Amino acid sequence: MNPALEQQLKIRQLVENWAVYRDAGLWDRFRTVWHDDGVMMATWFQGPFEEFIKVTIEGWNKGVSILHFLGGSAIDVNGTRAIAQTKMTISQRGMVEDCLCDVVCTGRFYDFFEERQGRWGLVHRQPIYEKDRIDPIDPATQLQLDKQALATFPEGYRHLAYIQTRIGYKVKMDMPMLKGNEVEQLYQRGAKWLDGKPLER
Q1: 76 belongs to a structural domain
Q2: Is the per-residue pLDDT at 1 higher than 80?
Q3: Is 159 among the domain residues?
Protein backbone atom coordinates (compact mmCIF):
# COMPACT_ATOMS: atom_id res chain seq x y z
CA MET A 1 0.00 0.00 0.00
CA ASN A 2 1.14 3.56 -0.69
CA PRO A 3 2.64 4.84 2.62
CA ALA A 4 0.81 8.18 2.41
CA LEU A 5 -2.51 6.43 1.81
CA GLU A 6 -1.86 4.11 4.73
CA GLN A 7 -1.40 7.09 7.07
CA GLN A 8 -4.55 8.74 5.74
CA LEU A 9 -6.55 5.56 6.34
CA LYS A 10 -5.31 5.34 9.93
CA ILE A 11 -6.39 8.93 10.54
CA ARG A 12 -9.76 8.44 8.87
CA GLN A 13 -10.37 5.44 11.11
CA LEU A 14 -9.73 7.62 14.16
CA VAL A 15 -12.20 10.23 12.86
CA GLU A 16 -14.85 7.53 12.45
CA ASN A 17 -14.06 5.98 15.82
CA TRP A 18 -14.55 9.37 17.49
CA ALA A 19 -18.14 9.64 16.23
CA VAL A 20 -19.11 6.04 16.97
CA TYR A 21 -17.52 5.81 20.41
CA ARG A 22 -18.69 9.24 21.56
CA ASP A 23 -22.30 8.81 20.50
CA ALA A 24 -22.43 5.28 21.97
CA GLY A 25 -20.82 6.37 25.23
CA LEU A 26 -17.93 3.92 24.86
CA TRP A 27 -15.60 6.15 26.82
CA ASP A 28 -12.63 3.81 27.28
CA ARG A 29 -12.52 3.29 23.52
CA PHE A 30 -13.17 7.00 22.90
CA ARG A 31 -10.00 7.81 24.84
CA THR A 32 -7.93 5.78 22.33
CA VAL A 33 -8.64 8.38 19.65
CA TRP A 34 -6.83 11.13 21.57
CA HIS A 35 -3.36 11.99 22.78
CA ASP A 36 -3.21 12.85 26.48
CA ASP A 37 -3.12 16.61 25.85
CA GLY A 38 -6.03 16.55 23.38
CA VAL A 39 -8.46 19.46 23.39
CA MET A 40 -12.08 19.47 22.20
CA MET A 41 -13.76 22.63 20.94
CA ALA A 42 -17.53 22.94 20.52
CA THR A 43 -20.16 25.63 20.71
CA TRP A 44 -21.01 24.62 24.28
CA PHE A 45 -17.63 23.33 25.52
CA GLN A 46 -13.93 24.13 25.10
CA GLY A 47 -11.27 22.19 26.98
CA PRO A 48 -9.44 18.89 27.60
CA PHE A 49 -11.10 15.81 26.18
CA GLU A 50 -11.36 14.17 29.60
CA GLU A 51 -13.44 17.12 30.79
CA PHE A 52 -15.48 16.81 27.58
CA ILE A 53 -16.29 13.22 28.53
CA LYS A 54 -17.34 14.31 32.01
CA VAL A 55 -19.66 17.10 30.88
CA THR A 56 -21.11 14.95 28.10
CA ILE A 57 -22.08 12.29 30.63
CA GLU A 58 -23.57 14.99 32.86
CA GLY A 59 -25.58 16.25 29.90
CA TRP A 60 -26.83 12.78 29.07
CA ASN A 61 -28.03 12.38 32.66
CA LYS A 62 -30.06 15.56 32.17
CA GLY A 63 -31.56 14.36 28.90
CA VAL A 64 -29.30 16.22 26.44
CA SER A 65 -29.27 14.43 23.07
CA ILE A 66 -26.51 15.29 20.56
CA LEU A 67 -25.48 12.89 17.78
CA HIS A 68 -23.01 13.06 14.88
CA PHE A 69 -22.92 11.77 11.31
CA LEU A 70 -19.87 11.85 9.05
CA GLY A 71 -19.27 12.43 5.35
CA GLY A 72 -16.11 12.55 3.26
CA SER A 73 -12.64 13.50 4.46
CA ALA A 74 -9.69 15.40 3.03
CA ILE A 75 -6.49 14.57 4.92
CA ASP A 76 -3.12 16.28 4.53
CA VAL A 77 -0.12 14.46 6.03
CA ASN A 78 3.38 15.87 6.47
CA GLY A 79 5.66 13.50 8.35
CA THR A 80 4.23 13.02 11.83
CA ARG A 81 1.68 15.82 11.50
CA ALA A 82 -1.71 15.81 9.78
CA ILE A 83 -4.79 17.95 9.28
CA ALA A 84 -8.07 16.16 8.59
CA GLN A 85 -11.20 17.93 7.38
CA THR A 86 -14.33 15.78 7.53
CA LYS A 87 -17.84 16.73 6.49
CA MET A 88 -20.28 16.15 9.34
CA THR A 89 -23.67 16.93 10.79
CA ILE A 90 -24.47 17.61 14.43
CA SER A 91 -28.03 16.69 15.39
CA GLN A 92 -29.49 17.87 18.69
CA ARG A 93 -32.99 17.04 19.93
CA GLY A 94 -34.64 18.98 22.68
CA MET A 95 -37.43 21.26 23.79
CA VAL A 96 -37.56 24.68 22.13
CA GLU A 97 -40.34 27.05 23.24
CA ASP A 98 -42.36 24.09 24.58
CA CYS A 99 -41.95 22.20 21.31
CA LEU A 100 -39.82 19.07 20.80
CA CYS A 101 -37.44 19.85 17.94
CA ASP A 102 -34.45 18.58 16.00
CA VAL A 103 -31.67 21.03 15.20
CA VAL A 104 -29.28 19.87 12.47
CA CYS A 105 -26.02 21.71 11.81
CA THR A 106 -23.86 20.92 8.78
CA GLY A 107 -20.15 21.62 8.83
CA ARG A 108 -16.67 20.11 9.06
CA PHE A 109 -14.47 18.70 11.76
CA TYR A 110 -11.06 20.34 11.40
CA ASP A 111 -8.66 18.07 13.24
CA PHE A 112 -5.02 18.40 14.25
CA PHE A 113 -3.41 14.94 14.39
CA GLU A 114 0.09 13.86 15.36
CA GLU A 115 1.97 10.57 15.31
CA ARG A 116 3.79 9.98 18.59
CA GLN A 117 5.81 6.83 19.28
CA GLY A 118 4.22 5.18 16.28
CA ARG A 119 0.61 6.03 17.22
CA TRP A 120 -1.59 8.62 15.58
CA GLY A 121 -3.83 10.57 17.92
CA LEU A 122 -6.06 13.62 17.98
CA VAL A 123 -4.47 16.73 19.51
CA HIS A 124 -7.11 19.36 18.78
CA ARG A 125 -10.60 19.26 17.25
CA GLN A 126 -12.16 22.47 15.95
CA PRO A 127 -15.54 22.18 14.24
CA ILE A 128 -16.44 24.55 11.42
CA TYR A 129 -20.14 25.43 11.46
CA GLU A 130 -21.54 26.07 7.97
CA LYS A 131 -25.34 26.15 8.22
CA ASP A 132 -28.14 24.82 10.39
CA ARG A 133 -31.90 24.48 10.67
CA ILE A 134 -34.59 23.63 13.22
CA ASP A 135 -37.63 21.41 12.69
CA PRO A 136 -40.45 20.40 15.06
CA ILE A 137 -40.70 16.63 15.54
CA ASP A 138 -44.44 16.98 14.92
CA PRO A 139 -44.71 18.82 11.57
CA ALA A 140 -48.19 20.03 12.50
CA THR A 141 -46.76 22.06 15.38
CA GLN A 142 -46.38 25.81 14.92
CA LEU A 143 -42.97 26.71 16.30
CA GLN A 144 -42.57 30.32 17.40
CA LEU A 145 -38.95 31.38 17.94
CA ASP A 146 -37.78 34.59 19.55
CA LYS A 147 -36.54 36.25 16.36
CA GLN A 148 -34.65 38.96 18.20
CA ALA A 149 -32.75 36.40 20.29
CA LEU A 150 -32.14 34.19 17.25
CA ALA A 151 -30.58 37.07 15.34
CA THR A 152 -27.92 37.56 18.03
CA PHE A 153 -26.29 34.19 17.25
CA PRO A 154 -23.73 33.53 14.47
CA GLU A 155 -25.33 32.55 11.18
CA GLY A 156 -23.55 29.20 10.79
CA TYR A 157 -24.88 27.77 14.07
CA ARG A 158 -27.74 30.10 14.90
CA HIS A 159 -30.38 27.49 15.69
CA LEU A 160 -27.91 25.22 17.47
CA ALA A 161 -26.91 28.11 19.72
CA TYR A 162 -30.58 28.95 20.29
CA ILE A 163 -31.45 25.49 21.62
CA GLN A 164 -28.22 25.17 23.61
CA THR A 165 -28.66 28.47 25.42
CA ARG A 166 -32.28 27.59 26.13
CA ILE A 167 -31.14 24.49 28.07
CA GLY A 168 -28.51 26.39 30.03
CA TYR A 169 -25.26 26.20 28.06
CA LYS A 170 -23.05 29.21 27.41
CA VAL A 171 -22.28 29.25 23.69
CA LYS A 172 -18.98 30.47 22.24
CA MET A 173 -19.85 33.23 19.78
CA ASP A 174 -16.75 33.31 17.56
CA MET A 175 -16.48 29.78 16.22
CA PRO A 176 -15.26 29.30 12.62
CA MET A 177 -17.96 29.25 9.95
CA LEU A 178 -17.94 28.71 6.19
CA LYS A 179 -16.44 32.15 5.60
CA GLY A 180 -14.83 34.86 7.70
CA ASN A 181 -11.73 35.73 9.69
CA GLU A 182 -12.11 32.87 12.16
CA VAL A 183 -11.98 30.13 9.52
CA GLU A 184 -9.12 31.83 7.67
CA GLN A 185 -7.15 31.98 10.91
CA LEU A 186 -7.92 28.29 11.49
CA TYR A 187 -6.51 27.41 8.06
CA GLN A 188 -3.36 29.37 8.91
CA ARG A 189 -3.00 27.48 12.19
CA GLY A 190 -3.40 24.23 10.29
CA ALA A 191 -0.70 25.18 7.78
CA LYS A 192 1.70 26.04 10.61
CA TRP A 193 0.92 22.73 12.32
CA LEU A 194 1.77 20.80 9.15
CA ASP A 195 5.04 22.75 8.92
CA GLY A 196 6.03 21.46 12.36
CA LYS A 197 5.32 24.61 14.35
CA PRO A 198 3.72 24.54 17.83
CA LEU A 199 -0.05 24.34 17.98
CA GLU A 200 -1.72 27.71 18.54
CA ARG A 201 -4.64 27.07 20.90
Answers
A1: yes
A2: no
A3: yes
CATH of the domain at 184: 3.10.450.50
- State how far the Cα of 20 lies from the Cα of 70, in Å rounded to an integer: 10
Residues 164-187: tens digit of each pLDDT:
999 999 999 999 999 999 999 999
Range of the domain at 19: 3-194
What would the DSSP string read from start to end of 117-131?
TTEEEEEEEEEEEEE
Query: Is 88 within a domain?
Result: yes
The reply to whether the predicted model has a pTM over 0.85 is: yes
Reported as a single tens digit per residue, the pLDDT across 128-145 is 999 999 999 998 898 999
- How many domains is the chain built from? 1
Q: Is 165 exposed, middle or buried (0-12, 13-18, 19+ CB in 10 A)?
A: middle
